[in-house]
């Protein structure tokens, strides 16, 4: 029996999608697809064999990106949605939505300074998600992640569409950086380094747990302190090097594609898929916190909790909690003011 393929492009109406009886493979929607992260992220996702439909949405310039990507000979249909009026249509039927929409930092800016610009973007995406794909797994890249995730959670709660197991702030880039920098110091391949990074995604809230690094880190305390500082400030290193032309886009695209792939592997029922991400959590006094998570078909299968910490890491954790709590409080207040 031959099934029609779910072609969801600009020419397709929502009704066409709803009439599709059979779905081949998984659908990922990228919001902010024409941006510095969105484009390389979409390029990597186009090559992912688990994805059969890649839906690209941006307020502008999506058409060209989608046309370009659609010429790549991989078994993944690309569809394009452009302008605020098409956001919902781009999300219908998504298994995973990855959001890289919003302003990046310029030199001298903190992530918190992006809140005014990006909070409303995240809120509008959350509203559209609650209507169009309430069962999807949601991966928010948009900064400041520490505050954006609580905002999205509050908006989804107000729409009766919140499931804490399905909402993730993407902190994978911190893990990617930790693996890379530690591998230089350990003299091994980055892919052979395992290190949890917990907390949040800004400055000292990013806490790499070097004591649990595998292979074991044997450097001096001073070397370790420098490593932790470099991981925490790696985003700023890129912002400075790009000198006003954006923040980390290529490494973030790599990290985002890796995280989305892990979500899809979980959806497909693969066992032992573990990633760190910033989620609603009760492992600390902060209501949202990044720890290693076991992923499954419906998102978080199990929060694996805090790794063992040594004294230095305990002290760093104690210091970061008030910062994170403040970031979260700001998000909840912002959301409640606009709901
Ligand atoms: P960019 O400015 O190059 O691209 C952002 C895209 O979002 C643009 O194409 C813009 O048109 C689009 N956009 C703006 N408002 C939108 C809306 N309402 N709906 C849909 N699309 C919209 O920025 P870039 O470099 O791609 O960064 C995106 C975000 O990712 C920033 O907030 C940045 O700080 C964050 N980021 C997060 C990281 C993480 O580790 N979580 C790492 C690096 C950046």
Largest sheet: 6 strands, parallel
N-to-C span:
48 Å
Low-confidence stretches: 1-8, 10-23
As a percent range, the share of helical residues equals 40-55%
Quaternary organization: single chain
* Rg estimate, integer Å: 19 Å
The H-and-E topology, N to C, reads as HEHEHEHEHEHEHEEHHHEEEH
Number of β-strand runs:
11
Catalytic activity: (S)-malate + NAD(+) = oxaloacetate + NADH + H(+)
Enzyme class: oxidoreductase
Active site: 201
Organism: Drosophila busckii (Fruit fly)
Please summarize what this structure is:
It holds the Pfam family Ldh_1_C. By secondary structure, this protein is an alpha/beta fold.
Question: SSE layout and pairings?
Answer:
Layout (H helix, E strand, L loop, with lengths): L13 H6 L6 E6 L6 H9 L4 E8 L3 H9 L6 E6 L4 H5 L4 E4 L15 H18 L4 E4 L4 H14 L8 E3 L2 H15 L10 E3 L6 E3 L12 H12 L1 H9 L7 H18 L5 E8 L7 E9 L2 E5 L7 H28 L1
Parallel strand pairs: 1-2, 1-4, 2-3, 4-5, 5-6
Antiparallel strand pairs: 7-8, 9-10, 10-11
Helix pairs in contact: 2-10, 5-6, 6-11, 7-8
The chain binds 1,4-dihydronicotinamide adenine dinucleotide.
Task: Describe the protein in words.
The protein has 339 residues and is α/β, with parallel strands linked by helices. It has two domains: 146 residues, 3-Layer(aba) Sandwich (Rossmann fold), CATH 3.40.50; 155 residues, Lactate dehydrogenase/glycoside hydrolase, family 4, C-terminal (L-2-Hydroxyisocaproate Dehydrogenase, Chain A, domain 2, Alpha-Beta Complex), CATH 3.90.110.10. It has eleven helices and eleven strands. The strands form three sheets. The protein has a six-stranded parallel sheet, with helices on both faces. A three-stranded antiparallel sheet has the order 9-10-11. The chain has a two-stranded antiparallel ribbon with strand order 7-8. The termini are far apart.
């Amino acid at each position: 029996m031959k099934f029609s393929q779910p072609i969801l492009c600009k020419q397709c109406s929502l009704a066409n999608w709803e009439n599709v009886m059979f779905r081949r493979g998984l659908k990922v929607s990228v919001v902010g697809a024409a941006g510095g992260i969105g484009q390389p992220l979409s390029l990597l996702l186009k090559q992912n064999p688990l994805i059969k439909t890649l839906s690209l949405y941006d307020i502008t310039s999506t058409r060209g990106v989608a046309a370009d990507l659609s010429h790549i000979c991989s078994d993944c249909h690309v569809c394009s949605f452009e302008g605020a009026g098409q956001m919902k249509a781009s999300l219908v039927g998504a298994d995973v939505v990855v959001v890289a929409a919003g302003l990046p930092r310029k030199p001298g800016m903190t992530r918190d300074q992006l809140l005014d610009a990006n909070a409303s973007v995240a809120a509008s995406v959350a509203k559209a998600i609650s209507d169009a794909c309430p069962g999807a797994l949601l991966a928010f890249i948009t900064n400041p992640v520490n505050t954006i995730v609580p905002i999205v959670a509050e908006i989804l709660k107000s729409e009766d569409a919140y499931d804490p197991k399905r909402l993730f702030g993407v902190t994978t880039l911190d893990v990617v950086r930790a693996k890379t920098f530690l591998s230089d110091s350990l003299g091994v391949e980055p892919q052979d380094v395992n290190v949890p990074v917990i907390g949040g995604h800004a400055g000292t809230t990013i806490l790499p747990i070097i004591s649990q690094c595998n292979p074991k880190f044997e450097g001096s305390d001073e070397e370790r302190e420098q490593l932790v500082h470099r991981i925490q400030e790696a985003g700023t290193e890129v912002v400075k090097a790009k000198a006003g032309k954006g923040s980390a886009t290529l490494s973030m695209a790599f990290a985002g594609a890796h995280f989305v792939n892990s979500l899809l592997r979980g959806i497909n029922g693969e066992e032992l898929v573990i990633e760190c991400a910033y989620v609603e959590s009760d492992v600390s006094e902060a209501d949202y916190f990044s720890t290693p998570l076991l992923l499954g078909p419906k998102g978080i299968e199990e929060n694996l909790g805090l790794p063992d910490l040594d004294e230095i890491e305990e002290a760093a954790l104690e210091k970061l909690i008030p910062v994170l709590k403040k970031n979260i409080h700001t998000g909840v207040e912002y959301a409640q003011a606009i709901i």
